[in-house]
Amino acid sequence: MPGISAETVPSPAPRGKYPLPRLTKPKAPAGTIYRGNVGMWSWVLHRITGVAIFFFLLVHILDTALVRVSPEAYNAVIGTYKNPIMGLGEVALVAAIGLHALNGLRIILVDFWAWGTKHQKLLQWIVVILWIILLIGFVPRHLMNVFSE
Amino acid sequence: MASDVLEKKGPRAHDAVPTFTVTMIVRRFDPEVDEEPRWVDYDLEMHGTDRVLDALHKIKWEIDGSLAFRRSCAHGVCGSDAMRINGRNRLACKTLLKDLDVSQPIYVEALKGLPLEKDLIVDMEPFFDSFRDVQPFLMASSKPKDGKERLQSPEERARFDDTTKCILCAACTSSCPVFWTDGQYFGPAAIVNAHRFIFDSRDEGAQVRMDILNDKEGVWRCRTTFNCTDACPRGIQVTQAIAEVKQAIMRGKP
Questions:
Q1: What is its EC number (chain B) (predicted)?
Q2: ipTM score here?
Q3: What is the pTM of this model?
């Protein structure tokens, strides 16, 4: 219809007992984070540890290859690793590799063994428990070495 | 007469159900106005017997008629009203409000990973394209014996019973982290429907479907996060079905 501007169009009035809907600031404009179960989070951790291990291996291969260039340079580089920050980094490295390895075995069982698919939650917790046992065996001994030198 | 009885009884039975106030926060998007989706709050008085779908109806019918969402049967059969409720894919018609924490706001948004069209409506075409690609129909070249039925033993029928339950609501496919980042992935629902025919003793197209799914974007994309199994409103063991198809492909036969 001609002649009707935006002002003359009646806005939908609130009816009944409900107040007008409130507009809120976008708390999460991109939507909420999907609330997946342990399976999704173990996948996320598997991906993160996988990428981290890849970058470690890159550096590791480079510094090991240095021994072919000159043993003195190799010794100098390895010598710089002997400090508490690197010691803590080694704890993170073993934790990441342990989790990635155990979780990888779990994924193989889930893929190839019908029992594993059915009891995947139990397998998740077995992975966590084995991982903690692994760390209990490694971390105290390792930290004693790092901080006693 | 009958309606008299109904009218007298109706309100009383209604009042017997306790009510509570619930805040619904709906992620709304009008493609003609909004550049980005926005969250809108609604305070509603609901009953203990109400579902999330009833709350959405209340918003649409009593507060803001422009709210757009799909629903058809409203009883968990048609699979139209899958959406993300409090961060998980659910059917709005099968989720009771009282089973959620109503002391907290309830967040409702469209399925993730499919193109958003309006409010809670997503474009389902990419989802149905993958479904069509696995050729989800009986392939049989031979005539049935005695010209009537293709007989099957109860054991043969039970082999694929779980995957016959799919209602194509897309809750599984749009809960899959792989599908969010790689829209080319067939997705759990297509694999479930392939499974339904691959393991059907009457079907002759298993090899065709296994070849289709033995692809970079096929079953090997599955990372067994079990999001699909948790999301399925029909309780289909989706990840297990995908694992069975993986194994069938490696064996080379169902």
A1: 1.3.5.1
A2: 0.80
A3: 0.83
Which parts of chain A sit beneath pLDDT 70?
1-30, 149
Structural domains in chain A plus CATH codes: 37-147 (1.20.1300.10)
From residue A63, give the alpha-carbon distance in Å to each of A31, A79, A81, A94.
44, 12, 11, 18
Is the pLDDT assigned to residue B70 strictly greater than 80? yes
**Percentages (nearest 5) of helix, strand, coil residues in chain A:** 70, 0, 30
**Which tokens in the block code for residue A36?**
């997946």
- Can you read off the two tokens belonging to residue B216? 């970079």
Tokens linked to A1: 């219809």
Which CATH class for the B125-251 domain? mainly alpha
Whether residue B196 contacts residue B118, with contact meaning beta carbons closer than 8 Å, is answered with no
Confidence check: pLDDT of B9 > 90: no
- At A147, which amino acid appears? F
Q: Are strands B38-47 and B82-85 parallel, antiparallel or unpaired?
A: unpaired
Tell if the CB–CB gap between B175 and A120 is shorter than 8 Å: no
Each domain of chain B, given as residue ranges in start order, spans 14-122, 125-251
Structure tokens at B124: 């389902």
The continuous run of DSSP H or E covering B42 comes out as strand B38-47
The whole-angstrom distance between B83's CA and the closest CA on chain A is 12
For residues B39 and B49, what is the distance between their CA atoms, to the nearest angstrom? 26
Question: Is the Cβ of A50 closer than 8 Å to some Cβ of chain B?
Answer: no
Determine which helix (DSSP H) or strand (DSSP E) holds B62, and give its type and residue range.
none
Residues 17-56 of B with CB under 8 A from A: 25, 27, 36-45
**Sheet containing B38-47: order of strands:** A22-23, B38-47, B19-28, B106-109, B82-85, B88-91
CATH code of the domain made up of B14-122: 3.10.20.30
User: At residue B11, what are phi and psi to the nearest 5 degrees?
Assistant: -60, -35
